[in-house]
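job 3f2a | input accepted
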Amino acid sequence: MTTFGVARAIGVPGPDYPVDAPRADRARRAHLNAVENLAVFAPLVLLQRSSMSARKQRCSPRRLT
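job 3f2a | predicted structure (65 res):
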């Protein structure tokens, strides 16, 4: 950000911008992969958690008071 400025850091890079360092490119690709996988696994986790809570409510003993 200090090298190329704020616009480069938050904007869409154009063809005239210099190429990033390999580690920055790898970090960007890793971040995009993590976001992509989040869309797959988040609903599965939420479904599993809601299933566990529903099962817990069915199996809990009721008090007769």
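job 3f2a | Residues 22-59 form the longest helix (38 residues).
job 3f2a | closed
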